[in-house]
Design a protein that fits this description.
CATH class: Alpha Beta
Strand order of the largest sheet: 1-2-3-4-8-7-6-5
Number of helices: 7
Helix content: 25-40%
Distance between the termini: 40 Å
Order of helices and strands: HEEHHEEHEEEEHHH
Largest sheet: 8 strands, antiparallel
Keywords: Membrane, Signal, Transmembrane, Transmembrane helix
Number of domains: 1
């Protein structure tokens, strides 16, 4: 099933890649958030991903519908093209509630996330959630590995929840467990480059963003979307070289 998902996403993304992704540079949204990424990484913005909801595999579409989620929530997918079973990626989701940074709130989201993953049949290990510094900002940092049903790969994730401007900026880094350390420096550099508005207003209970945090990981894994995006980058670069010759 996982292989079929990857093929479906590849076909869908090839149809949506006509505008071409941006390689290396800075992504900025309209709320004051920005992040820089290395030259070999490629950013696919929201307008290049939104129509995928019409082409998603049925199982994933149903899961998204049941949880009142939408691919429009993905502001950007930043992917490292390469070879292998999975391409490393970083994605951003913005939630309209600002999370607190208290030990109680962080413990709550940890317990709820582990419980939801278990109900989905996802095996989660080495789970750690803590308050930490990310660049100049205080944030919630979540590290863990995951194994999804019908997918032989073991994945590793780092999620950073940054409160700012009355919102929460959820940045999710995903790779296979075997390859994560190879791109750890790139992930760390991108996270350190993040700029976001300062916290404002009253924090919202952490349980309000549990599903969004979960969705960020499922988006990165379900169907191998990061791998498909990486294949598109190679396709576009080949096409451009052909046009220039």
């Amino acid at each position: 099933m996982a292989t079929l998902y990857r093929l479906n996403f590849l076909a869908a993304l090839l149809l949506l890649a006509a505008t071409g992704p941006a390689a290396g540079g800075e992504f900025a949204d309209g709320t004051g958030f920005s992040i820089t990424y290395p030259d070999e990484w490629v950013a696919l913005r929201n307008d290049q991903l939104g129509d995928l909801r019409k082409l998603l595999p049925t199982d994933f579409t149903e899961w998204v519908r049941r949880n009142n989620l939408d691919l429009k929530r993905i502001e950007v997918l930043i992917v490292c093209p390469g070879r292998g079973e999975f391409f490393d990626s970083l994605n951003l989701i913005i939630d309209d509630h600002q999370v607190p940074l208290t030990d109680k709130a962080i413990g709550q989201v940890a317990d709820e996330l582990i419980g939801v993953y278990a109900k989905m049949g996802v095996t989660v290990e080495d789970f750690r959630a803590r308050a930490d510094r990310v660049g100049p900002r205080d944030a919630v940092v979540i590290d863990f590995t995951s194994r999804f049903p019908d997918d032989p790969l073991l994945y590793r994730h780092r999620q950073v929840l940054i409160p700012g401007g009355g919102r929460t900026y959820i940045v999710t880094c995903s790779s296979t467990a075997a390859a994560f350390d190879q791109h750890a420096a790139a992930f760390d550099a991108m996270l350190a480059s993040v700029k976001a508005p300062p916290p404002a207003g009253k924090p919202f209970p952490m349980d309000g963003v549990v599903r969004i945090v979960l969705f960020a990981v499922v988006f990165a894994i379900a169907g191998g979307v990061a791998r498909a995006a990486g294949t598109i980058v190679s396709y576009l670069r080949t096409r451009r070289r052909g046009a220039e010759e």
